[in-house]
Amino acid sequence: MKEFILNSTKGFMMGAANVIPGVSGGTIAVITGVFERLIEAISKFDSIALKLLIKKDIKKLLQHIDFIFLLSLGIGAIISLISLAKLLDLLFLEHKLLVWAFFFGLILASVFAVGKTVRSWNKASILLFIIGVVIAGSMVFLTPSSGNNSTFYLLLCGAVAMCSMILPGLSGSFVLLLMGNYELIISSISQFKLDVLIPFGLGAILGILLFSKLLSLVFKNYHDQTISLLTGFILGSLALLWPWKNEVINSLLIDNRVVEKVVGYTYALPSYTGETFFALILIIAGALLILWTEKKSKE
């Protein structure tokens, strides 16, 4: 029971991270030490699991897919998403700069927390770290493409968005926006358009199953290189979280109503004000929270 509650708490933190714009739950999964186990559990949805299901050997099936672990994370994540979404919406409305500052501190400390798990920094690890920084950082400056409702592209959107959600440093919704189908998917969910949701959902399922198997294999054989690349992703994502910025907003027509969506930012340096001083305190507080969480996850 103690382990279940602990994993539910970690799931809660992952859910909270996914509520935060530009932040991936995968980042928290790495910091709290459940990322590799999560990837391994998802990869177990394979032919062996299917055979156990057909045989109705439920006990072995649940053991095979690490069901209790996935259930504990899922419960925590769902509670977090339900309880924090409205609170964060309110905070962003009233104190946007301060909220960004706290999140910036969280992710800044995450770079060190995740980077520490690299056993040996060699030329390959450093190169992959730089590649990760460039990929994640450059996404902020990309221009969203036009939408496409072809079946193949919807499959691709589902796969890429789901993989982005689990990768540290990448935001699934932001990637979907860049691919041009954010408006289409959101509208299709509210209107329950199966011609869009079915291929998108299939792509998401296939993407996460295939990607989890690949990640599991890569982790086992190239641990340091993989972690260094993910650390680069996290550092690169700081460009999206810089507190002192102005939003570039596009208006989208969803369900016959205009919805504003942030598609980019213009950046600035902090000014010498009381709010800036408080923002710096929150950056430190966010960083200390991550370092504390990382320490507690090892106990």
Task: Give a written overview of the molecule.
- The chain is globular.
- By secondary structure, the chain is mainly alpha-helical.
- Helix 4 packs antiparallel against helix 5.
- The protein has a two-stranded antiparallel sheet with strand order 1-2.
Q: Features of this protein?
A:
299 residues, mainly alpha, single chain, globular, two-stranded antiparallel sheet
Content-based structural category = mainly alpha
Report the principal-axis shape. globular
The rounded Rg comes to 20 Å
Biggest sheet strand order reads 1-2
Number of domains: 1
Mean pLDDT across residues: 80
Taking the alpha carbons of the first and last residues, their distance comes to 16 Å
Query: Percent of residues in beta strands?
Result: 5-15%
Count of helical regions: 15
Give the % helix: over 70%
Number of strands: 2
